[in-house]
Amino acid sequence: MTTVRLPLFPLNSVLFPGLVLPLNVFEERYRAMMRELLKTPEEEPRRFAVVAIRDGHEVAPSAPGMPDPTSVPDLGPAAGFGADPAISFHDVGCVADAATIREREDGTFEVLATGTSRVRLLSVDASGPFLTAELEGLEEEQGEEAGALAEGVLRAFRQYQKRLAGARERSLSTGAELPDEPSVVSYLVAAAMMLDTPTKQRLLQAPDTASRLRDELKLLRSETAIIRNLPSLPAADLTRGRTSLN
What's the superkingdom here (predicted)? Predict the structure, then answer.
């Protein structure tokens, strides 16, 4: 089993391979991570791992609170994640490659990264200035009938987009071409749908592409039917990802 150790960036969202992740980094533990990544030669990838938080907070407390209003909040690398941070995270995440790391005058960072590959979380180390993790790479198996399922998912996804656009009483631009490679389709649709974090996490850790596509097909049909019956639902811009508070 081949493993790798990388800096760990927990988020209240799921990152999929091929998707862009903008970050506004202001906490000291993550600023330290970015300063370390900047030491990597420019010709080498500046990689870190992103995992979705199962139980905890993306941003650590910054002021005294309950039950002791005078207690100083924990600002260490595992702040907000309990004594054993590993159990606070989902165990399948995604490696991110930071294409841009720009330090601002106030010491915060503007980061633009892209998800590259899935990994399984084996252990978490909180002994340094930021969390690091031992990770095992997960291969993406196609599974049976992935190609046909991808075609069905794309058709269902277009209907889903049209229903969302109709809910806002405006037309949806169809100028952008959607991919046809099954695994890329599965990740794009998983990221674009309006789903909660546990559902997105389930899609990320699907055993193979075909299984993920089957799940997405059911979700798309269900969500499209709901939107059809509730036309006043607020729509979301499916082409714009949420920027993390960090």
Answer: Bacteria
DSSP H or E segment with residue 188 = helix 182-192
Torsion of CA 54, 87, 37, 118, to 10 degrees: -70
Computed over every residue of the chain, the mean pLDDT equals 85
Whether 167 contacts 231, CB under 8 Å: yes
> How much is the pLDDT for 174?
45
The number of CA neighbours under 13 Å toward the Cβ of 212 is 27
Percentage of the chain beyond pLDDT 90 is: 67
Tokens standing for residue 33: 């991570």
Asked if omega into 64 is within 30° of 0 (cis), the reply is no
pTM above threshold 0.90: no
pLDDT band at 143 (very low <50, low <70, confident <90, very high): very high
Tokens of 169: 């009483």
